[in-house]
């Protein structure tokens, strides 16, 4: 993983979101900006400390998907900064094996537990956090169910 690029992209997300928070005239949006900042800060800290971020990335993506700022232009700016980080993350793990992706994103234990429990839906959720195509996810699930 290219830690410097990811850190820089996250720092941009934090500074962009902080600026949007300071400039907003929409009182209802302030709390949402604060949530974005808190989650971005956690991801930034974990990247700096080389800790897994798979669940945090999913949480942030869900946040952007389930919240909306009254100021649509501001939302677009904040999401563009987040999307830039996601693109860099995807590029940095593109050539990795599934095991490497699970390790890098901090999902190995969750994956192993889901395999032991033969929990296909949980496996699918974990593998989707690894930025895999649906066909690859299904093939891995099928393989894991046969082997166990």
Quantity of strands, as a count = 0
Q: What structural category arises from helix and sheet content?
A: mainly alpha
Extract low-pLDDT stretches. Answer: none
Number of helices: 8
Apparent shape = elongated
Radius of gyration: 17 Å
Domains, number: 2
Percent of residues in helical segments? Answer: over 70%
Summarize it.
By secondary structure, this protein is an all-alpha fold. It contains eight helices and no strands.
Present the secondary structure layout.
Blueprint (H helix, E strand, L loop, with lengths): L2 H21 L3 H22 L5 H13 L5 H22 L4 H7 L3 H9 L3 H9 L5 H14 L1
Helix pairs in contact: 1-2, 1-4, 2-3, 6-7, 7-8
Question: What this model shows, in words?
Answer:
By secondary structure, the protein is mainly α. The chain has two domains: 3-93; 98-147, no CATH class. 79% of the residues lie in helices and 0% in strands. The protein has eight helices and no strands. Helix 2 (27-48) runs antiparallel to helix 3 (54-66). The model has no long low-confidence stretch (mean pLDDT 94).
For this entry, give a set of tags.
single chain; 148 residues; mainly alpha
